[in-house]
Amino acid sequence: MDSPDVTVPRGSLADYLDILETLKDKYNTKIPVIAHAGDGNLHTVIMKDNGEIPPYYNNLKNELYLKAIELGGTITGEHGVGSLRLKNLPMMYSERELEIMWKIKEAFDPNNILNSGKSVLKR
């Protein structure tokens, strides 16, 4: 299970923590926050339920990401997109922006040897 590491502007930290309280109640769970909030990076932890990933996991994760974006933040601040957040990129970027990113990757890696098979941008 991954820990969504959203980032919000430091001035919005209190607002995001209030949102977490609302989501905690909505999903009847706990959402601990760990790490280094001083730079706006918050590692939210979605708790397992009796050792299992809860059925609301993806919905809660998506809400955590969307709320961070609404506050001017991002879906990751430290750990990068990787394969865990790949499907969430369209929350932040338009199709055109994603295409531009792909073109930049193609320019520097025309043979697709860097992170082959794991590219964060797929056509």
Strand order of the largest sheet: 1-3-2
Radius of gyration over C-alpha positions, nearest whole angstrom: 16 Å
CATH fold call of the largest domain? Alpha-Beta Plaits
Q: Report the CATH C-level class of the largest domain.
A: Alpha Beta
The helix/strand series, from N terminus to C terminus, equals EHEEHHHH
Give your account of this protein's structure.
It is a single chain. With 123 residues, the protein is mainly alpha-helical. The chain has two domains: 5-83, Alpha-Beta Plaits; 93-123, no CATH class. 41% of the residues lie in helices and 7% in strands. The chain contains five helices and three strands; from the N terminus they run E-H-E-E-H-H-H-H. The chain has a three-stranded antiparallel sheet, covered by helices on one side. Helix 1 runs antiparallel to helix 2. The longest helix has 15 residues, at 13-27. The mean pLDDT is 88.
What's this, in brief?
With 123 residues, this protein is mainly α. It has helices spanning 13-27, 57-70, 82-85, 89-92, 95-108, and strands spanning 5-7, 33-34, 41-44.
